[in-house]
Design goal:
2 domains; single chain; alpha/beta; 15 helices; about 525 residues; Aldehyde Dehydrogenase, Chain A, domain 1; Aldehyde Dehydrogenase, Chain A, domain 2
Length: about 525
């Protein structure tokens, strides 16, 4: 079966044979996708002119109502999406829930915020600025939706969540969406778009999808467009420096590589609540989605006195994780999404082993449950130990996008900070400690290179939302090699799709323009 693309409010198949999507457990060919022959210039123009115009005519409350209908539809078809996720991504029930249920939850979060805005259409920011002594000439800052198109170039690991966590604020802000999902797992995103289109929820031109290669998509961007990219730092550089992006000063948001950290505080000895919480979270981050999360823990920093104890505790739990076909009874972790990702992960493990000791896992003598190792894209949970993190290089630079983490002992706080910062910018770091002085100092020393910091102590316990869980009400993104982007964060995410300007005139004229606008303080609250 060949999956069609949806552009210009029409379903169009690729002119070529396309790329086959496979089951990463068995290697079975499932469907094919392709974008050959598509008029992507026309697709973007149609989205701007038809979709954007229609969305901007609606109030925030009306747009939120559309998001609510999408969330309801996705919830109704949840079982279908779980099946596709299992077949195309090798996802377990928990993996599929992380992606699909996360998408639905994020949509509902923006529904609540959008409905609270009611009939408003624009945004007024701050107080009026007096510009004349007499008070008859003032300035007022406004925010308006950009009259372009929001273009999403997404990664393979979250075909559902990545689509809707970006689309929810864009549509609520009044911008149409063109999504280009990663080819290996495009089936789920394509099915979701197809279901929304069939239900007739959104205005014409508001939602489009291009499967297969991006081809000349970026050649046709223009002023007012927004490009949101998730993927490798190398590809991000090409997106940012694309001639059309540069010429038209197109706004670009990037989520790229991230060697995220978990830190055990010096007070968190074996047997403490913080020690146990750290072990549990490292294991979960290594195994949920088979470690294929941009936010997953890659480096685990532990006081030298406790490093081997923590490594042994993590390795013991990993040894009880059953890896294999998610359809088989008792399996808790499935394969990577493709043989290409499997090869990249195995090469990354080999690179890390030039500096690190293998504690558990690795490709040797591994046999998946209910599947043939040679046919699938399996990589067992692999834990390494780097005895000298200060002198090591690759452990701070190489992100293995799979079930792989490295334990690194630290001697003191200064050494810890130096090593954490060698990640050169990360999406998230989590700290497990009840020592307030230690955690406060660490946060101050590494906050500038992290988009999110999660501090867990005995008082928080298991109530935390998770090291790798990007919540719709909190910022998601990170500086430096993580891309420098910012997504989510509640209503502030709408800021990516809004343009600030100032209007100068009489108080009466400004008051008329501000009528029906929401207070922009809502965005930044």
């Amino acid at each position: 079966m060949r999956l069609p693309n949806y552009i210009c409010d029409r379903w169009i198949e690729s002119a070529g044979e396309g790329v086959a999507l496979s089951n990463p457990v068995s290697g079975e060919r499932l469907v094919s996708v392709g974008s050959d022959g598509l008029d992507l210039a026309a697709a973007l123009a149609h989205a701007r002119q038809v979709g954007g115009t229609a969305l901007r005519q609606l109030s925030h409350g009306e747009r939120a109502g559309l998001l609510a209908r999408i969330a309801e539809l996705l919830a109704e078809k949840r079982a279908d999406y779980f099946d596709i996720s299992r077949r195309n991504s090798g996802a377990t029930e928990a993996d599929a829930g992380f992606d699909v249920d996360g998408a639905i939850y994020t949509l509902k979060s923006y529904v609540r915020s959008g409905k609270a805005l009611g009939d408003t259409r624009g945004w007024v920011e701050g107080a009026r600025v007096p510009l004349s002594k007499e008070g008859n000439f003032v300035g007022q800052h406004f925010l308006v939706p950009q009259q372009g198109v929001a273009i999403f170039i997404n990664a393979f690991n979250f075909p559902a969540w990545a689509l809707w966590e970006k689309a929810a604020p864009a549509l609520l802000a009044g911008m149409p969406v063109v999504v280009k999902p990663a080819t290996p797992t495009a089936w789920l995103a394509q099915r979701m778009v197809a279901d929304v289109v069939e239900a007739g929820i959104l205005p014409a031109g508001a939602l489009s999808i291009v499967c297969g290669g991006a081809r000349d998509l970026l050649d046709h961007v223009r002023e007012g467009d927004v490009v949101s990219f998730t993927g490798s730092a190398d590809t991000a550089r090409r997106v940012r420096t694309h001639p059309a992006v540069v010429e038209h000063s197109v706004r670009v948001n990037v989520e790229a590589d991230s060697v995220n950290s978990a830190v055990l505080g010096p007070d968190a000895a074996p047997g403490s609540a913080e020690f146990d919480l750290a072990v549990r979270e490292v294991v979960r981050e290594m195994t949920i989605k088979s470690g294929q999360k941009c936010t997953a823990i890659r480096r685990v920093f532990v006081p030298a006195a406790h490093a081997h104890a923590l490594a042994d505790a993590v390795a013991s739990k990993l040894g009880r994780i059953t890896v294999g076909d998610p359809a088989a009874e008792g399996v808790r972790m499935g394969p990577l999404v493709s043989r290409a990702q499997q090869l990249a992960a195995l090469e990354g493990i080999a690179t890390l082993r030039t500096e690190c000791e293998l504690l558990c896992g690795g490709p040797e003598n591994f046999a998946p449950v209910g599947a043939t190792a040679g046919a699938g894209a399996f990589v067992p949970p692999t834990l390494l130990f780097c005895a000298d993190g200060e002198r090591a290089e690759v452990v701070h630079q190489v992100e293995v996008f799979g079930p792989v983490a490295t334990v690194i002992p630290y001697a003191d706080a200064a050494s810890l900070v130096r090593m954490v910062r060698r990640g050169e910018g990360s999406l998230v770091a989590s700290v497990y400690s009840s020592d307030a002085a230690f955690t406060d100092a660490l946060v101050a020393d590494i906050a500038d290179l992290h988009g999110r910091l999660m501090v867990v102590d005995a008082a928080v316990g298991s109530a935390h939302t998770g090291h790798g869980n990007a919540m719709p009400t909190c910022l998601h993104g990170g500086p430096g090699r993580a891309g420098g982007g910012e997504e989510l964060g509640g209503m502030r995410a709408l800021g990516l799709y809004l343009r600030r300007h100032v209007v100068q005139g009489s108080p009466e004229r400004i008051a008329a323009l501000a009528e029906g606008c929401a207070d922009a303080a809502t965005l930044w609250a």
